[in-house]
Amino acid sequence: MSKAYETVIGLEVHVELQTKTKIFCSCKNDFGASANTHTCPVCTGMPGALPVLNRQVVEHALAIGLALNCDITPVTKFDRKNYFYPDNPQNYQISQLYLPIARNGQIQIQVDAGPRIIRIHEMHMEEDAGKLLHDEWDDTSLVDYNRSGVPLVEIVSEPDLRSAEEVIAYLNELRTIIRYLGASDCKLQEGSMRADVNLSVRPVGEASMGTRTEMKNLNSFKAISRAIAGERERQIELLESGNTVIQETRRWDDNKETSYSMRSKEDAQDYRYFPDPDVPPVHIDQVWVQRIKDNQPELRAEKLRRYKKEFDIPEYDARILTETKRMADLFEATSSLCHKPKKVSNWLMVETLRLVKERGLEAEDVNFSPAHLAELIDLVDQGLINGTVAKEVFEHIFDEDVSPREYVEEKGLKSVNDTAALEEIAKEVVAKNPKSVADYQGGKEKALGFLVGQTMKVLKGQGNPGMVNEILRKLLS
Ligand SMILES: Nc1ncnc2c1ncn2[C@@H]1O[C@H](COP(=O)(O)OP(=O)(O)OP(=O)(O)O)[C@@H](O)[C@H]1O
Ligand SMILES: [Mg+2]
Ligand SMILES: [Mg+2]
C-alpha cells in the first residue's frame, strides 16, 4: 500500500512586456516580424555595444510589482547571468539576482475549496534570449535574434501551490492582473507568458520538502495539467522503488505526454552572477511609486469588492465579469445606461461569451456599444421583441454593432402585440388541434405549451409569448 503524497509546486512565470522598443536598445519590440530584422549591435551582443535601460520597462515592472502587493526595492540593480548558448550572443543574460525590483508579494486565488493566498518570492526584470529553430530534416539550427533583448519580468512564487487546479487559477489571476495593467497580452501559445513548473512530492504530514524538478515547454493550460500529473507520478514511483529524485530541468513533450531530462539543474553559483557594470542602479523614490499607483486602473480585487456593494448580482457573475477589463467595462457602462445589472450580466456571461468562443475570439476583442446592448434589453422589457428574436438581434450587435431598434424596424422583427390579431391566429390553431385542446381541458397543462408553440410558429416567432399564453388560456377556459 503506497503512502499518500502531497504535491508541492512553485512557479517561475516569464512575461514579455509590451513596449515600443527592447529593454536595452532602440530596436522594435514586435512579435512576428521576419527573422533578424529587429536587431542591432546591442541585442546581438557585439563587443563594445552599451545597453541603455528602457524606462517603460521599469514602469511596467513597478505597476505589476505593486499590483502583486510586493515591496518595491528602492535601489534595484542588474546582474549578469553567464551561460553559453547560441540564442544568447553576449554569453550572458542581463537579469537581476541580488536586488530585484519587487519582493514579498502575494495574490489571492479562488479554487473549488475556497480562496487561497499564494506568496510571491520576488519579481525581476531581464532580457529575453533569441529563438532557435531546429530543422531536423535539413539537420540545421537557425537563430532569430528579434526576440533577443525583448523585455521580460520573471515572477517567482513561493512553493505554495498544491495542485494543477491551483496552478491554473494562479496563472489566470496573474494574467488578469497584467492584462488590466496593459503590460502584456500574456498569451501562453505565443510565448508572451511562459510558466516553468517546479514540483516535488512529500508524504502527507511531512514538514520538509522533497527534491524538486523544473519543467519547461508548457504551452497551454492542458499541457500544464498533464505535465503536473505525469511528473507527480514519476517522482512517486521513484521514491516508492527506493530511488531518489534528481534536481534537474526537464522538457515536457505534450505530444508524447512525457518529459525528459534536459540538464541537471545549475545552482546560482554555476552562472557566476555578478553586477553588470554597464547598467547603472535604478533609484526608485516614493514620488515615482506614488505616480504609478495613481495611474493604476481599478484592478479586479477592488472591482469585486465594489460590485458586491453597488450591483445586485451574484458573486459568481462578478467573478466572471471581472476576469477581463473589457467585460467589466462593458458591464459597468451598460448597467449605468439601463440600470438592470442582472440582465446585463446575463447577456455578457451567456450570449457574449458564447459568441466569443464560437468566433474564436478573446474577450478583449469584443467591441460593441454598451448603448446598443442597453437598447436591446429595453426592447425585450417593453415586449417589443421576444427572447428568440433578441438573441438573433444580439448576434448582429456583437458582429456589426447594429442599432437594435433600427435593425428590428428594418427587418420587421417586432412582436405582434395586437390582441385582436393574436386572437385570430390562436383561434385557427385551436380549431386545427382538437386533440391538444381536449388534452388541456382534461387537465394536461403541457398541452397548452404545444398550442402556444404552434401559434408562435404561425407568427414566425414574433408573437409576444406572454400574450399568446394568456389568450389561449382564455379561449380554452
Ligand atoms: N522543494 C520544492 N518543491 C517545489 N518547488 C520548489 C521547491 N523549492 C523551491 N521551489 C520553487 O522553485 C522555484 C525556484 O525558482 P528560482 O527562480 O528561484 O530558481 P531557479 O529555478 O533555480 O533559477 P532560474 O531562474 O535560473 O531557473 C520557486 O518558484 C520556488 O518556489
Ligand atoms: Mg528556474
Ligand atoms: Mg528563475
From TrEMBL:
Source domain of life: Bacteria
Principal EC category: ligase
Similarity comment: Belongs to the GatB/GatE family. GatB subfamily.
EC number: 6.3.5.-
Record-given protein name: Aspartyl/glutamyl-tRNA(Asn/Gln) amidotransferase subunit B
InterPro entries: Asn/Gln-tRNA_amidoTrfase_suB/E, Asn/Gln-tRNA_Trfase_suB/E_cat, Asn/Gln_amidotransferase, Asn/Gln_tRNA_amidoTrase-B-like, GatB, GatB_C_1, GatB_Yqey_C_2, Gln-tRNA_amidoTrfase_suB_CS
SMART domains in the cross-refs: GatB_Yqey
Catalysis performed (reactions): L-glutamyl-tRNA(Gln) + L-glutamine + ATP + H2O = L-glutaminyl-tRNA(Gln) + L-glutamate + ADP + phosphate + H(+); L-aspartyl-tRNA(Asn) + L-glutamine + ATP + H2O = L-asparaginyl-tRNA(Asn) + L-glutamate + ADP + phosphate + 2 H(+)
Keywords on record: ATP-binding, Ligase, Nucleotide-binding, Protein biosynthesis
Protein encoded by which gene: gatB
Residue span(s) of domain Asn/Gln amidotransferase: 329-476
Job of this protein: Allows the formation of correctly charged Asn-tRNA(Asn) or Gln-tRNA(Gln) through the transamidation of misacylated Asp-tRNA(Asn) or Glu-tRNA(Gln) in organisms which lack either or both of asparaginyl-tRNA or glutaminyl-tRNA synthetases. The reaction takes place in the presence of glutamine and ATP through an activated phospho-Asp-tRNA(Asn) or phospho-Glu-tRNA(Gln).
Quaternary organization: Heterotrimer of A, B and C subunits.
